[in-house]
Fold this sequence. Notes:
There is one protein chain. 39% of the residues lie in helices and 18% in strands. It has helices at residues 13-32, 36-50, 54-59, 71-84, 89-92, 108-117, 119-125, 138-152, 227-236, 242-257, 267-277, 296-310, and strands at 156-161, 175-177, 184-185, 193-195, 198-200, 211-218, 261-264, 282-288, 319-324, 338-345, 349-356, 363-370. It has a nine-stranded mixed β-sheet with strand order 5-12-11-10-9-8-1-6-7, with helices on both faces.
Amino acid sequence: MPAVSDRAAPPSSDDITRWQARLGAQAHSAWQLGSSLYADLLARVGDDLGVRGPCFTVMEPYLHQASSSALGLRFLAAVHRIVLRRQAPALALHYPSVGGSAPVEGAWRPFRNAVEEHRTVLTDLTARTCQTNEVGRSAALAVGLLWLAHTYELPLHHREIGASAGLNLQWDAFTYGTADRSVTWGPADSAVDLTGHWEVPPPTIPRVVEVASRAGCDPRPGDPTTPETREDLTASVWPDQRARHARLKGALALASERPVRVDQAGAGEWLLDVLAERPPGVTVVTHSVVWRYIPEREREVIVQLLEDHGRDADEQHPIAWLRLEPTPPKMVYDGRPYPLTVTTWPGGTTRVLGHAQAHGQGFRWNDGHAG
């Protein structure tokens, strides 16, 4: 997605209060998702806004923006960038992503000092959008793709919107399974190991799935073979979540070996051509934690395109819309798992296949009941 624009007008007191509340909610979300570092820092950043400290100085041009702009996470990703660049050595001691092991309790002072020292660069970096592309979500999406392969016994044509660098399009090269390994799927030696993400797996899993083609789109796609994109993705992963960083590193290695096409385009315009192709097999449109970032009008266009082309689908050319999204779209994780939902044509039947946590962990099969 493109960088977020700013404006010259100063923020209102209501803007500041709104973002303080949002940062507090995001801090609680970070704690629920296992990041004590970001839980602590987000809460303190909110306090710093109130006293117009260095965090306020950096974030001021963006405080007028809507809550959907994920400003808090963009700001923390900007700070993470300067840590990754080895430009904040005192703060790096608290960031496991660069080998730090100092306790969370001492992170705020070096964090605030780093923001003060690098405020001009950080103001520019905060304009960038988050490009998390969390590969853990493939643990849920893979279940839907396996279910479609089993249901139709046809090749899959995987099309992802909001694909970022296309890492989740590599889903069939990852390893999946329950914690006790009683159920597994995928290459055992994969660089991305999602074993343990399935708590309750589906009862039937095809051992072989043919992915006939794969492609994605994003308004600001990244090339995972370049240092810039690797920094983009790494900076957006929370620094104290070692397992997520290990998965990202593995997915980047796989992407270097088997590149996929990610077009620079919005989802609506891209799907016009994608859905008109209709190759033999299942055309599967996927996305995960992307819907909230797509403007409402474009969402309506996407749904209408799927429904229009769905009316022309047949048993040899079915269409599926598979998504892992909070319902309704929420900007802050509230602890409730996200539904894995699929709509299939012909027929236009919608099913909830299961639920997973925000980063794809804890997937539980739901028997695929129609809804």
